[in-house]
Amino acid sequence: MKTTCTKECSAVGGCPFAFTEESEKIQNYGCLPTPMEIVHMRQSHGKTWACHSDNTKPCMGALRFQRKLGMCAAVVDSDLITEESNWHLINGSKYDSVPLSVTENKYHEMSRGK
């Protein structure tokens, strides 16, 4: 049974934007991208990460996080990226429209609460 994506969804469990021990463990196993990789997907490729509770909806944690960074968080491509997608193939290319280092710098500033 699928659950509905809620505001709490991005604050609990395995959501990369929950910033919990569980979510970091899942990311370290390579099952999910890191928050920085999700931001990079959107900023460089226009691809939006789907909610893990309902993959027909965008991840609210990702959208909120990008807005806090002052980045565009609008869903440009309705084909959302899920755990089953080949998400690892759209990160880190030298042809990215936004260099990974720019995303990393903004991400680290946000992580430090700036």
Name its key features.
single chain, 114 residues, mainly alpha, disordered N terminus
Lay out the secondary structure.
Blueprint: H1 21-28, H2 35-45, H3 60-68, H4 100-111
Helix pairs in contact: 2-4
General description of the model:
- The chain is built from 4 helices and no strands.
- 35% of the residues lie in helices and 0% in strands.
- Helix 2 packs across helix 4.
- The radius of gyration is 13 Å and the shape is globular.
- It has one domain (8-111).
- It is mainly alpha-helical and 114 residues long.
Radius of gyration: 13 Å
Biggest sheet features: none
Number of strands: 0
Instruction: Specify the helix fraction band.
Output: 25-40%
Query: Helix-strand pattern, N to C?
Result: HHHH
- Binned strand content: under 5%
Q: Pick out the low-confidence regions.
A: 1-6
* Distance from first to last alpha carbon: 39 Å
**Structural class computed from helices and strand pairing:** mainly alpha
Mean pLDDT: 78
Q: Number of helical runs? A: 4
Q: Number of folding domains? A: 1
| Coarse morphology | globular
